[in-house]
Amino acid sequence: MQNNIEVIPYLSFKGSCEEALNTYIEAFGGEIHYMSRWTEDNYDVTPDQIGKVMHVEFSLGKTHMAAGDTFDGLEVNTDIKLMIHMDSKEEALHTVSVLAEGGTILSPLQPHPKPDDGGCGSITRDRFGFTWIITCPNPDKQ
User: Fold this and answer.
1) What radius of gyration do the chain's Cα atoms show?
2) pLDDT in tens, 57-84
């Protein structure tokens, strides 16, 4: 059994993958490692795929992720929640504001209840439908 396996979250989008990646990289920092696109030669459902992201691998901080635009007619499943720990309240507030553009802050950044009140958290659903839990240390408990 391999013990060096890495679980890579894979996010699916309905044509907005590149826009989402740019938003996430603005919010968290990160980089794109590899990106391929649908072309006239490889699209498999509709010409609307042409130019959209077929597959991308990227990093947000130390987290390796992947994504792509899907055109299979099925609804994109955004039930997963993604949690990111930020180093400061300022970083967390910036990240929440970027994710909230066109999205919804479900819970503003606030201290966690006791006994977890050493940290703060916020929940935001971005304009692509994904829910982000953003946490940081509670500056009042430092």
Assistant:
1) 17
2) 999 988 999 999 998 877 878 888 999 9
pLDDT of residue 45: 84
Contacts of 118 (CB under 8 A, 6+ apart): 112, 137, 138, 141
Please state whether beta strands 104-111 and 81-85 pair in parallel, antiparallel, or not at all (unpaired): unpaired
Cβ within 8 Å of residue 100, ≥6 positions away: 124, 126
Taking alpha carbons only, the member of 61, 9, 6, 64 closest to residue 34 is 64
| Among candidate residues 129, 11, 13, 136, the one with its CA nearest the CA of residue 83 | 136
What's the helix, strand, coil split of the chain in %, to 5?
20, 35, 40
pLDDT at 2: 61
Residues of the chain with pLDDT under 50: none
CB 61 within 8 A of CB 30: yes
